Amino acid sequence: MPISRFRLLLCAACVACAFSARADTVYLKNGKTLEGEVVKDDGEVVVVRVTDGEVTLRAAEVEAIEKQSPLETRLALASRQLQLGNLERAVTLFEEAWRADRASIQARRALAGAYAQQAPKYLALHRFREARTACENLAQLDPQGQLVPHNAAQALKELNAQEREAEAKVQNARGLAAGGHWAQAIAAFQQALAFTPDVRASVAPDMAQCYVKRAMDCSRDGRTLNAAADLEAALTLDPSLGDKLESFYASCALPGILDSLSRGHVAAAQVDLKRVLEFAPTNRQALYVAGRTEEALSHLPAAANAYAQALGTRVGNPTREYTAELRQKLEAELGVSATSWKVDTTFAELTGYAASAGGPAQKLDTEYFQILHYNEALAREVAARAEAARQRIVAALNLPGWKGQARVYLHRTQAEYTARTGQAAWTGGFSRPLTMRGPLSELEIHSWQTSPRLLTSVLPHEIAHLVVDCSLRDVASLPMALHEGFAVAMEPQFRQGHFLDFLRLRLKSEHFIPLAELLALNSYPSDPEFFYAEGYALVAYLIQQKSLADVVGLLKTITSASRAPAEILRLSGAKSLEDLEKDWKAWIVKKE
Predict the structure, then answer these.
(1) Which residues contact 202 (CB under 8 A, 6 or more apart)?
(2) Which of 132, 196, 195 has the alpha carbon at shortest distance from 159?
């Protein structure tokens, strides 16, 4: 769609700035000034709302305050964001100004001008849902074009045509998939995604199924490495497949690790095995290969422990003969050996986890968890996964974790979970410290029996939250984005890849939460996937630039949420949040 068709919309760009309004000005005793909206001035503190959050000052630091009307202040803040190129943030602020004074022609004209900028921008970027919203908002606010010149009706016609084109691309891909043409279908789905990010949510599950089907073909032909790669692609597109595909993926990924061991490439085998164990820590085949790897390193106690865990027994005297005996017994049970391997192409049957016993919740105790449940089989699996995840996360972050038991509530249904916790339906799980006493904190994790990704990623995510919480003096001192970033960093790699793919697609369409705004958020935005994705990407970027130990060190140096930006800049070495954001975005794109 030629952008020239929307010159009438673009010519409104100057309208939103065509007014004179000033924010409140706070004069400080050190000679500096601060502009924003003074939202609190009680004689002890002065709280100033600025474009990317709030600044709290001691009253003793303030020389004088020059206040404007609330409308002028809001319009000034919005105009400044517009001048900085932050169109989405500017629109939000203009909307607040207009809602506060609907009789103001100045506020209405400014908002109409901002909508008039949004529509062509979103159309050019093929962000169709947002383009439609902007056009409809503009048509409703200024139906006759009296406030700003525009042609919202024509824009909507063009939008309809492009949406039809996008739908045609999706239907073509689905037709290829229905015919079993997996490679062609995947390529067609990729073309639809390249055309507009709006189709991602609807096509990702279909595209993931194409990868799964192709992986099954590859596994039947003995191409297990190709199958493992396709399954990783499927999981990245649709992480909810994690629990179902775990055994299939492990059995396809592990032969390559055994091959590396046979070639003497032990270090490479360790790296690949770590990825599998993060995903499937209790998988018997994975534990077998872990034992083989430890034997190759002459770590007999560790090898015997891995074999014994897979056999469901305890380790005796880990001599070479005893370890070999355990290995041979496990090989017989698994139907594998040094020269043969059994690929499990079946999907995990999870329907049994939906069954619920009557009466009150039963309890299953482990060293660090108490599982409250209505399904014994699920509880045993959750217990094993939880202990493995806690051990791995505590070691990775080099944090002490907690003493005693965290309670894990496995509610019968999603409705029961949301009613008990008050959490939104989109959440897969929830954790919280009831009391904070360092390692002796009282901790809870909540989920439900058939929660997607419960075993593979919900548990490590929530356990990571609790490990981090126990290391903080005040849980609220760490910005929510970093809380979620650390938690996702402890999930399997396919879940991390899912979020990075999401961000790369959004960056191409110039859709991003500014870093300053991200760090200031203390509640989930309307699209929580953005929040999780950017929180993880920020933590991952800082780890890549420095080290995991350095980033974990932020848990000690960030003593309040307001200190977070300064501490992150200190760690990264960037001069400003704007410079850091620029480098961070470039890194996300480069990771593709």
Answers:
(1) 170
(2) 132
Q: Collect all residues with Cβ–Cβ distance below 8 Å to 437 and sequence separation of at least 6.
A: none
Placement of tokens 């299953």 in the chain: 364
Copy the structure tokens of residue 506.
Answer: 């959004």
pTM here is 0.83
Query: Helices marked H in 142-241 — which ranges?
Result: 152-178, 182-195, 200-220, 224-237
Q: Do 407 and 446 meet the contact criterion of CB atoms below 8 Å apart?
A: no
The CATH number for 3-160, chosen from 1.10.10.10, 3.40.50.720, 3.40.630.10, 2.30.30.100, is 2.30.30.100
Which residues, including other chains, have CB under 8 Å from residue 35's CB and lie 6 or more apart?
22, 23, 24, 25, 26, 50, 76
Whole-angstrom distance, CA of residue 575 vs CA of residue 274: 36
Instruction: Map tokens 């990010």 to a residue.
Output: 197
Question: What percent of the residues of the chain are helix, what percent strand, and what percent coil, each to the nearest 5?
Answer: 65, 10, 25
Output the CATH code of domain 165-237: 1.25.40
CA-to-CA separations, 256 to 233, 271, 313, 413, in angstroms, rounded: 17, 12, 27, 39
What is residue 2's predicted lDDT score, i.e. its pLDDT?
40
Q: How many whole angstroms separate alpha carbon 502 and alpha carbon 491?
A: 16
Residue 81: the pLDDT is: 83
Note the Cα 94 to chain centre separation in Å. Answer: 29
Class of 350-471 in CATH: alpha beta
Cβ burial of 149 (10 Å; 0-12, 13-18, 19+) is middle
CA 253 to chain centre: 25
- Residue 10's pLDDT is 43
Residues of the chain whose pLDDT is less than 50?
1-20
Domain ranges of the chain: 3-160, 165-237, 239-334, 350-471, 477-592
Q: Write down the pLDDT at residue 440.
A: 67
Q: What is the pLDDT of residues 144-181, one digit of tens each?
A: 888 888 888 888 999 999 999 999 999 999 999 999 99
Domains 165-237 and 239-334 share a fold: yes
